[in-house]
Amino acid sequence: MEESIELEIVKVNLSKKRIILYVLCSFALSFLYFVVISDCYGSAWFFAVYDKLRASLFTGYLTVGSFLLSLKSMILQKVYEIYDDEVYTKQFVKEQSKEQTDKYTVEIVNNIYIPLVNLNQLLLNGIALSLFTSICQLTLGMFNNKYLLSLCLAFAIATLVCLYCVWYIVKCNMKQWLVLIKIKKLKKKKSD
Fold this sequence. Notes:
mainly alpha
């Protein structure tokens, strides 16, 4: 029995606008939430709880930002290999040609790398947001002001949402990569 795997292009349903909307909404909602919490439980309680969290938030986001910064080029190189693969390119052009039935243009081939460019921008934004959140914990977090502390915590939540979006897009690309590996192994078996 001959085994065959059809390459299915994984489409990531996270557009730039949707990611920005998620991050901004999470920022605004968490800011309001923390302001209300500080009013309900009292500012002294809120300051005490945040004081315990501040050092962990600073080191955590500094570590995540630095880690992503060091791995960014490796992640992008691996994703580039996926999009540059012959099997992927053929399938992508085939699917794009179905959508644009009357023309096969250079634009179709150039569209292959658009998700890579978007991932690069999202990684850079995630790194910048992580490092900025870390700096906020160190600077703005020093003041006992419920609005500033709520702002620091809102940045932490918004950064988590942004990093989740990065993780999701990388996960989708790695899924594509694993399918490509299977296809290559099957082709190698057939040729042997």
